[in-house]
């Protein structure tokens, strides 16, 4: 407050006499804080996996054996993931 008193041009301290860091703090306090967005890792990875499978299937023109090879997995595993992700109906 002593610094504000020294800067004051009037007999009393006005907001303009206060240090800049107090103005910055006041502005920051007036803005609502952004809510931190949570990331559900399992869902995020599933979306990425689905996109990669779609791309491999497109590149392989629907050939599951070729798509599985592109993805570095076995055909049965690819088929299971297609079913789990709802991209293919289960047999039977």
Task: Please describe the topology of this protein.
Blueprint: H1 2-7, H2 20-30, H3 41-59, H4 64-71, H5 75-84
Helix pairs in contact: 3-4, 4-5
**What class do helices, strands and sheet pairing give?**
mainly alpha
SS element count, helices: 5
Tally of domains: 2
Q: What string, H for helix and E for strand, traces the elements in order?
A: HHHHH
Q: What is the CATH third-level topology name of the largest domain?
A: Arc Repressor Mutant, subunit A
Number of strands: 0
Distance between the termini: 80 Å
Mean pLDDT: 84
Helicity level, as a percent range?
A: 55-70%
Write out key terms for the chains shown:
single chain, 92 residues, mainly alpha, Arc Repressor Mutant, subunit A, 2 domains, 5 helices, 59% helix, rod-shaped
Commentary on this structure:
The chain is an all-alpha fold. The protein has 2 domains: 1-34, no CATH class; 41-84, Arc Repressor Mutant, subunit A, CATH 1.10.10. It is built from 5 helices and no strands. The mean pLDDT is 84.
């Amino acid at each position: 407050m002593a610094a504000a008193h020294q800067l004051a041009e009037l007999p009393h301290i006005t907001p303009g006499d206060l240090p800049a860091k107090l103005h910055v703090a006041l502005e920051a306090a007036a803005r609502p804080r952004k809510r931190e967005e949570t990331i559900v890792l399992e869902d995020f990875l599933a979306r990425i996996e689905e996109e990669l499978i779609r791309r491999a299937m497109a590149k392989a023109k629907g050939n599951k054996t070729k798509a599985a090879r592109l993805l570095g997995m076995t055909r049965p595993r690819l088929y299971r993931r297609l079913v789990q992700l709802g991209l293919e109906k289960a047999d039977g």
